[in-house]
Amino acid sequence: MEGAARVIARRGVRGLRMEELAAEAGVSTALIYYHFKDRAGTLRHTLEFISDRADRYTAGEEEGAEGDARQDLEQTLLLEFQDAPEVRENSTAWGELRASAIFEPGLRADLARATLAWIHDVADLLGRIEPTIPAPELTASAERLTGLLEGLSTRWLSGALPLAHARELVSEAVALEIDRLTR
Amino acid sequence: MEGAARVIARRGVRGLRMEELAAEAGVSTALIYYHFKDRAGTLRHTLEFISDRADRYTAGEEEGAEGDARQDLEQTLLLEFQDAPEVRENSTAWGELRASAIFEPGLRADLARATLAWIHDVADLLGRIEPTIPAPELTASAERLTGLLEGLSTRWLSGALPLAHARELVSEAVALEIDRLTR
DNA sequence: GTCTATATCAGGATAGAC
DNA sequence: GTCTATCCTGATATAGAC
Questions:
Q1: Where does residue A159 fall: left (phi above 0), alpha (psi -120 to 50 degrees), or beta otherwise?
Q2: Which domain holds residue B158?
Q3: CB-nearest partner of B154 from A11, A150, A159
Q4: Which pTM value belongs to this model?
Q5: Which of A134, A183, B13, B118 is at a distance of 20 to 30 A from B59, taking alpha carbons?
Q6: Does residue A163 lie within 7 Å of nucleic acid chain C, judged by its CB?
Q7: What is the per-residue pLDDT across B24-73, written as a single tens digit (0 to 9) for each?
Q8: For B102-119, how does the pLDDT look when each residue is reduced to its tens digit (9 = 90+)?
Q9: CATH code for position B127
Q10: Across the interface, do B172 and A140 touch by the CB < 8 Å criterion?
Q11: Helices and strands in chain B: count of H runs, count of E runs
Q12: What's the total number of domains in chain A?
């Protein structure tokens, strides 16, 4: 699964070849098929693996010091923009999943669920900053912030946007949204 | 080229098969190769075609009534979110191009140029609303707005975000950015 | 310019031994 | 569980006639 994540980060979901994956993992292709049935099964397991790994990252943050809700939010959003290989692999794989879902309805359900959960988490963090704000407002802000994140993520991964600048843009967007909600 | 745009919208850049493209255009595959040399050449021509077509849409708007600069901006940004087949085809193809660029460095130059031009256009429109604002501020706002657009576009095309809601989110984002710049 | 074959090849998948 | 060897399909690309 770790090898698969690396290959996906390098070639994309649609560029993944079973042979390269096998080489990356240091086994034969036949063994991959033995464990995961076929290409689609391999992909499913890999995406699940990546999803779990991403949850692990965020988990630590949310329980963190109750100190500053706003910093928690910013921290969480900025997790996506780091130069660690695992983060890059996760972001790449998720980006691929999103892009693939446009043409493969079978992926849409999984994707929609994950996206909704993500939006809900962000809305929740926003709500902790100022508990009086009605839920629909929080959701709309969360949708804009996560939407922006996804857009900038693609730019970053394709080399069109330096990491530091991406982080600045996100921070400022957070400031704008909070400003709007608390005014 | 029109057939190619339809096929790309249906299958994605990476899912495009020369045979399906030929069938869509009502000719043989050999004829495609005769005109466009190979798959890559066909893709290049198609993307150029799509790009030109997109320019045509926006062109009309920018020269429009000098009435309300802000409305011009909002109009321009919302052009991406319409249910017309051509718009959907263009959005899909551009989204595919962006996603592909992560794995194909050869595409990055074209993409970066187009993205920069797009950001510049938006920054320009923002500048017309309030000419005293320094350029870097305008650019940052434009980067956030276009970034958001790209993120929401993917969600819309994958069926995760209704068109009307996408438009609301964009409108509100425009309001936030203008509010920020003119405060 | 356009077609009907067809060559070619990459890559997914399996058989069968160990 | 794991390998080597191989089959087979699907897709790009070309040859050669009209």
A1: left
A2: 2-182
A3: A150
A4: 0.92
A5: B13
A6: no
A7: 999 999 999 999 999 999 999 998 999 888 887 776 665 555 568 899 99
A8: 998 878 888 898 899 999
A9: 1.10.357.10
A10: yes
A11: 9, 0
A12: 1
